[in-house]
Amino acid sequence: MTQDPIQRLLDEHVELLAQLEPLRRALHDLPAGGAESLNAALPALREAAHMMTTDLIAHARREDDIFFVAVEAAMGGAFGPTAVMRSEHAEIHAGADRFESTLRELQDVQHPAIVEGGARLHAMVQGGAGPGELLAIARPLLDLIDDHFAKEEQVLFPMSRTLLDAASLRTIAEQMDRMDACS
What we know:
Elements: H1 5-53, H2 55-75, H3 80-110, H4 112-115, H5 119-127, H6 131-163, H7 166-182
Helix pairs in contact: 1-2, 1-3, 1-6, 2-3, 2-7, 3-6
């Protein structure tokens, strides 16, 4: 059982950010390397897309459905910090979905077998997503995730430590564990 749900969320931030490091490196290398760097980056891009649509969403669900609910109850209702965090979760989820669909399109239309195809397929390649579109989605998404985690770590979590008593923290931890068991 999780003893301290705030520490658990902090630890998850560390793990999620570590999982995003290969994506950060891949994005750094993409603009200069052309097709070779894209092919080399694909595993990191796929892993990041998978992590954002699984682990990152699960983390946000623990916060939205359990932790924020408890903080809001302690404060007498939803207000600024949790409302902002919920809104940012929605932005992050939408960005992760755009990243995944753009990556899927990029893989589909940039795949060498398609590129070698006829005129119709060539037109598809010309109109399909490219590395530039992926960069335009991924960089702001990573910035949003970084900023979001910083706000939680510097504002919401410290504030929550003053609002939530030991019994509330135990209840939150138990609810998180139950959520994990159902996933």
